[in-house]
Design a protein that fits this description.
The complex is a heterodimer of chains A (about 270) and B (about 270).
Chain A: E1 2-5, E2 11-14, H1 18-44, H2 48-65, H3 77-105, H4 116-129, H5 132-143, H6 147-171, H7 175-183, H8 188-222, H9 230-239, H10 243-271
Chain B: H1 20-40, H2 45-61, H3 71-102, H4 110-125, H5 128-139, H6 143-167, H7 171-179, H8 184-218, H9 227-235, H10 239-267
Helix pairs in contact in B: 3-6, 3-8, 4-6, 5-6, 6-8, 7-8, 8-10, 9-10
Classes of the chains: A mainly alpha (about 270), B mainly alpha (about 270).
Chain lengths: ~270, ~270
């Protein structure tokens, strides 16, 4: 904040002094330049005639898509069940793998700070950086299309997420409780079981349910690369331009996601 | 002494879920579900077994990633992904502000609130890939479709958290500004905006790196970016190129995540 005296002699309040103001302007300038460059790149790669035509096409698709073909639903129950299984089993597998990794990565429980901890952290970052659909693409080429590829893809992506949030929770626990347990002469494992686990249990349950909710959303598209679930129906319907079926699939996905979000919010509300 | 030890009481750890009916119900329910789910999974174990040495080949290719032979395509793809990321984050951020304001129950009227919440729900429920598919159908192939898809996804994410932030904002500050006779714009500008600004900047930094992560996959459906190159590499079993692309993505994500955490730490 700065106060300046104007030529007339009266004092004027300003939020920043001159240098700070110039810096802010320079920041805006740089930001806008970066954005304009990006926009130019996109614009160059775009056929604007198609974009101009877009409202007409969108309208066309919409009129073809409505009303949804409700009778298609009987072919959708099985893919929906598969989608839920991919998300749930994938989450379960990821939890089983993520828990030991989290304990290896947390600085207060890791057996070796200089060797094992970096490895565990690298696993976490690697798993988090790669989107589940890339994992699915990879697994479909390796073990063939199907539900198994989708489940493993979801599991691989979720390991990093669960382990990251869990190890942060482990690092933030209350030290006193562990000291109390240690004072009774407890072994290292008993310390973890009675001192750490009860403290992180609510967080852990919350993370798992949260990730399950995200996984329901992600598993709806894995089928696009052949990894099972409702995405396969979506791709098949779009390929033959069966828009009423596409509309129904989207509706089903929307309902499934809203329900899973509601369940996860309820469970997390009950825990906390 | 020993006559009072009628039955030695052993301490047991209290269970996580106290209600025994609920606890056993959940355990039995999950067990039944998992048995059913596994039984219904249709897995071709022979195909899985045959794929294992291809998997090994892929893992080994991580030891010698090939950045060179498709270097040009990788570079172009990454630049296009970054460009889409930046543009989508900026546009998503700008669009999310009015929608976030509209979705905050304490400052908007009911019809606007319901409309904005509806937009947020749809945007959050539909995965980026699905949105990208439609955008490709509408706008044609290329980064423009991916940019719109990512911007649309960012709107849902940013607007939802922004609305929650506004709903949790302190009332007294806003009231003080209103008491000076401020107009609606001034009220938002001076009473509400300073309260959510640091968080909004933090969130958009977070969104920047998650948009990059998503921009690397929308290419799979033809919406521009590195995804198309990656897909081609997988289709041709060029695992060394694929591993080079994946490593590049990991490095950029790590760099973005690190710098965004630095910025967020400075703001809070």
């Amino acid at each position: 904040m700065a106060v300046f005296t104007s030529q007339a002699g009266s004092k004027i309040w300003q939020r920043r002094d001159r240098n700070a103001q110039l810096l802010v302007w320079a920041g805006w300038m740089a930001g806008i330049m970066v954005f304009m460059y990006c926009w130019q790149q996109i614009s160059r790669a775009t056929t604007w005639v198609f974009v101009m035509d877009a409202p007409r096409i969108a309208d066309d698709i919409l009129t073809r898509a409505l009303p949804p073909r409700w009778s298609y639903m009987e072919q959708l129950w099985w893919p929906v069940w598969d989608t839920i299984n991919i998300a749930t089993i994938g989450t379960a597998i990821s939890i089983i793998i993520a828990v030991p990794i989290a304990f290896l990565a947390a600085s207060n429980t890791t057996p070796s700070k200089y060797f094992i901890r970096p490895v565990a952290l690298f696993i976490i970052v690697g798993s988090r950086s790669i989107n589940s659909i890339i994992w699915a693409l990879l697994l479909v080429t390796i073990i063939g299309p199907g539900v198994l590829a989708g489940t493993i893809a979801i599991a691989l992506r979720s390991i990093g997420f669960v382990a990251k949030l869990l190890y942060e929770a482990i690092e933030e626990i209350d030290r006193n409780q562990i000291e109390a347990i240690t004072a009774t002469g407890a072994s290292r494992w008993q310390e973890i079981a009675y001192g750490i686990v009860p403290q992180i249990m609510p967080t852990f349950a919350g993370i798992s349910v949260f990730r399950w909710d995200i996984n329901i959303r992600e598993s709806t598209v894995l089928g696009y690369v052949g990894a099972g679930g409702i995405g396969m129906q979506l791709q098949a319907s779009m390929n033959v331009l069966a828009w009423p079926q596409v509309a129904l699939i989207l509706l089903v996905i929307l309902v499934a996601v809203v329900i899973s979000e509601w369940v996860s919010a309820k469970v997390r509300g009950a825990i906390i | 002494m020993s006559e009072s030890a009628a039955a030695p009481r052993v301490w047991k750890k209290p269970p996580f879920i106290e209600n025994p009916a609920l606890r056993w119900g959940l355990i039995i329910g999950f067990t039944v579900y998992f048995i059913l789910a596994f039984a219904s999974m249709d897995i071709n174990w022979i195909r899985v077994y045959e794929g294992l040495d291809r998997g090994l080949k892929f893992v080994l290719s991580f030891m010698k990633p090939d950045f060179i032979s498709r270097g040009g395509a990788i570079f172009e793809g990454i630049v296009e992904s970054l460009v889409m990321t930046v543009a989508a984050t900026v546009v998503g951020l700008i669009m999310s502000v009015p929608i976030g304001l509209g979705a905050a129950r304490n400052i908007s009227v009911l019809p606007v609130y319901l409309l904005c919440r509806g937009i947020i729900t749809v945007s959050r429920s539909l995965n980026e890939i699905i949105v990208a598919l439609f955008m490709v159908a509408i706008f044609g192939f290329g980064p423009f479709a991916g940019f719109i898809a990512l911007a649309f996804a960012s709107i849902g994410f940013l607007a939802k958290l922004l609305a929650e932030e506004i709903e949790g904002a302190e009332k007294s500050q806003a009231e003080a500004v209103r008491a000076t006779g401020a107009s609606w714009m001034q009220w938002i500008n001076y009473g509400i905006q300073p309260q959510f600004m640091p968080r909004l900047i933090g969130l958009s930094m977070y969104r920047l790196d998650s948009n990059f992560r998503h921009s690397s996959v929308v290419g799979l459906v033809g919406a521009g970016g590195i995804g198309a190159t990656l897909n081609t590499a997988f289709d041709r079993y060029e695992f060394d190129t694929a591993s080079a692309i994946i490593l590049t993505i990991i490095i950029i994500v790590m760099a973005l995540e690190y710098s965004s955490s630095l910025i967020r730490a400075r703001l809070q």
